[in-house]
């Protein structure tokens, strides 16, 4: 007997398929499949439009996926997420990033508020000179302890940086040396960002940064360190004074931690108020996600399309192109969020999954990407669902022609992917033919400010969670990163039994 979940999938697979052109015969399609999420802003409201009309989601598919969501107990799992239940079953933990934005179990929200008050106090004290003149911050972390800060600082601090922030993640010393080159040791502080405070790359880079300060005449280098961590005891052991340790809760996952003290460099660069605005934008998405159901829940609707392309159309990748220079790091950020969360092969119950899980997330910046990879999107043999992200308000103050060209190109790409055609004068040359019927979604922001960035990130967090629920997997663990780490440690300790190829490589590099 088939379970309600497999029955829902069977119905989805049997649903009639339509081309985009057929779907667009419905004059109400754009209204039905695009919607805004808004929040209060100075002088009214601001928000983001999510247009999923150029995807193949049809009435049949939407109701089929709504049935699937019900069979997967989406509402129950969402309630568990937002109430602080231990939904990360393999690690016996809750996943309470939304509590950082004021949506969650009351004690967790209160704890987050108290910890945020500490971040604010330290940020303001530093701005007021408590650590002497501070012009530069070298933020050292990796994965979730670096990608969020790097994205947010790059997006928000271009023209209003109060402190010049350098995010260093790679253990390759080239990265740290580059930051040293750009900073004056006398006016530099170091943030060591690590949930566990044990990650080898981060701790090695942090030690080298202290040595650099010491070698350049700073008498008390650890006095220049701020620790951002869920393991404050380890930071104390490492020598950081408690007044400069900004803790966060164990229940905030690494790739969901930008909202916690891991966001310290953002607040230091753009000011506490902007950091709070980012939290508020994220909260607007949380409330939408909590209160809307079925297709009206926009992150869930996006997950319907994601699952349709992955499971039914066999798409192995999805691409994201930000038509905004300030969001250049957004595809990198999404890669960790989506692939570390949903790149799994067993269900929450430990059973093998029956189909593909996370698509491979990739992307870039428009219009650059048009001149590099869009060939494949238009004429290649892969079907790649694409998201376009853009802002109506420009980020520059140059001739408005710049922004107009940027946006028209963005919209033209979505239109061209869908329409297809033939560029030959007789319309018959196969090399110049565009098959069309290729899907895209457009996320159009009123403006790319702090609140909007918060909203964009939170939207994708919930989309990732919704995908995990439809797949029946746990998005909050990441055991897949462990085996390689252990083997590297074994090599370092001179142990481990390795294959002949690895042994030969180690020997060649003088490491065995
Ligand atoms: O190795 C993967 C990972 O655990 C990520 O999930 C995490 O964001 C990153 O390493 C850094 O971990 P930490 O913040 O503990 O240094």
UniProtKB/TrEMBL annotation:
It is found in: Cytoplasm. It catalyses: alpha-D-glucose 6-phosphate = beta-D-fructose 6-phosphate. Its main location: cytoplasm. The keyword Isomerase applies. Keywords: Cytoplasm, Gluconeogenesis, Glycolysis, Isomerase. Coiled coil: none annotated. GO terms for cellular component: cytosol. GO terms for molecular function: carbohydrate derivative binding; glucose-6-phosphate isomerase activity; monosaccharide binding. One of its GO terms (biological process) is gluconeogenesis. Pfam families: PGI. It is an enzyme of class 5 (isomerase). Belongs to the GPI family. This is Glucose-6-phosphate isomerase. It comes from Altererythrobacter lutimaris. The lineage of its organism: Bacteria, Pseudomonadati, Pseudomonadota, Alphaproteobacteria, Sphingomonadales. The gene is pgi.
